[in-house]
Specification:
The chain is globular and about 50 Å long. Strands 9-11-12-13-10 form a five-stranded mixed sheet, covered by helices on one side. It contains seven helices and 13 strands. The protein is of the alpha+beta class.
Length: 261
């Protein structure tokens, strides 16, 4: 789908510097897409799911840490049409996935690291916002806002999700770029996988690996994915994981998460 609005591209060069070679650009993209233990892409997927289903990034209102895990609050669930926020919940459920049972972006996913990172980042988000007056205002403040999915398009690593960003009454935001301050709970700014960008009217996140479905794959297509989150039953559908062809089977920890077996 083609975005109705232009996207800003992340750049690390001053305007007066010489253009980069294709080799340099490729090296930068590889660094940006480094997925380590699968946790960076999972956190980026959570940011996209939150924006899509809850229509905002207000983590200290919509989430809480319970028994060491990040979970949705009742207020957060009320923001979702289904009352459960199925996509957001499925990504949060990855905190309970058996270790080494999940592969994301070619990396063995570390669910324990995911759980600890989310709890640590959420606590940092809370501390940041609690001290949001004074010197922390620029680092932690952001306008009240609403996010609406605008487009999905190929990105440098995987998929760019672009959202229209407005005030709750539909007016333009004064500083949409500061919505990045609400992404501390998913590792901003250290998590380069977020690749947050903004224009006057939109904000974008890139990328994710089959964690934020926008359409269902037909049964006749073979999805190149080791894991897929789906609101419909895709058990038995063709898939390939790290070159091995198999079929999707429902996971043991989530009714909406499927593993390529």
């Amino acid at each position: 789908m083609t975005s109705l609005f232009p996207l800003f591209t992340m750049t690390f060069l001053a305007c007066t510097e010489a253009p980069q070679s294709s080799e340099s650009i490729e090296q930068m993209e590889q660094a940006l897409c480094e997925n380590v233990d699968g946790v960076p892409s999972a956190m980026a997927g959570l940011a996209v799911a939150t924006a899509t289903e809850l229509g905002r990034w207000e983590p200290t209102v919509d989430f809480e840490v319970k028994r060491g895990e990040l979970r949705l609050t009742a207020a957060g669930k009320r923001r979702c049409d289904d009352g459960e926020c199925w996509n957001t919940r499925a990504i949060l459920d990855l905190q309970d996935a058996p270790r080494r049972d999940v592969t994301l972006g070619g990396k063995s996913f570390d669910s324990m690291s995911f759980r600890r990172s989310l709890a640590r980042n959420f606590n940092e988000q809370q501390r940041c916002e609690d001290g949001h007056a004074g010197r922390d205002r620029e680092r932690c403040g952001a306008e009240r806002h609403e996010l609406t999915l605008d487009s999905v398009s190929p990105g440098a690593c995987d998929t760019v999700y672009t959202f229209q960003a407005t005030t709750p009454r539909g007016a333009p935001l004064r500083e949409p770029e500061r919505l990045a301050n609400k992404l501390v709970y998913v590792g901003y700014p250290e998590n380069e996988y977020l690749s947050f960008t903004s224009t006057e009217t939109t904000v974008s996140i890139d990328p994710t690996y089959w964690l934020n479905p926008t359409s269902e794959t037909s049964s006749g297509a073979c999805a190149a994915a080791c894991l897929r989150i789906s609101s419909t039953n895709i058990s038995g559908q063709c898939c390939s994981c790290n070159g091995a062809v198999g079929q999707f089977e429902r996971s043991s920890w989530s009714a909406t998460t499927y593993i390529c077996e």
